[in-house]
Amino acid sequence: MTSPPERPERLQKILARAGLGSRRACEELIAAGRVRVNGEIATLGDRADPEVDRIEVEGAVLGVRPGLVHYLLNKPAGAVTTASDPQGRPTVVGLVPTEPRVFPVGRLDADTEGLLLVSNDGDLAHRLTHPSFGIDKEYLVEVEGTPSRGTLRRLRQGVELDDGPTAPAKVSAVSDGVLRITIHEGRTRQVRRMCAAVGHPVRRLVRVRIGPI
Fold this sequence. Notes:
Blueprint lengths: L8 E2 H7 L5 H9 L3 E3 L2 E2 L5 E2 L6 E3 L2 E2 L8 E6 L27 E3 L7 E7 L2 H8 L7 E7 L5 H9 L2 E2 L2 E2 L4 E6 L2 E6 L6 H8 L4 E9 L3
Parallel strand pairs: 9-15
Antiparallel strand pairs: 1-4, 2-3, 2-5, 5-6, 7-9, 8-9, 10-14, 10-15, 11-12, 13-14
Helix pairs in contact: 1-2
């Protein structure tokens, strides 16, 4: 007697197993309309087969191919976002297992801390880093002084830098001297330069979110 075929898994279970957060957090992603299955916006209760169905979270395809590895690294200050460093500084690749070979997805400068994806998934790396996708990057920023409402408005509207004005950003004050800044551009040291341009140099910078991650 043959056993009945297994039912597809609930979508939030698949997302949680892929490292996108707890099942509750993944349910919130689905409820917010940020998940698609085979091109259709998913709803709570939907099921899927990750080996057959195309699952996307904010446009990034969920990697389920054999051999794919994804590390969510809390990068410490002082580590450089490379596989090797001629100056002998610690690298982010040196903070994860040596096999299989992986690479950092995007960059954080040496002094910046927080979320960095290290993976061997080229498709996902392209989705998260190519400017055409406009993936949000969210930071907690400790600055010198306490920015005024007018300064926050300047940051939101765009700041003139030496390589041109920045795109509008989401900016809010968390507490005195601490801001939450979300950008979708990928310029070098952009958040640091934005804050310096409005007279509040960065003391500490921590990335806390990349897109849905």
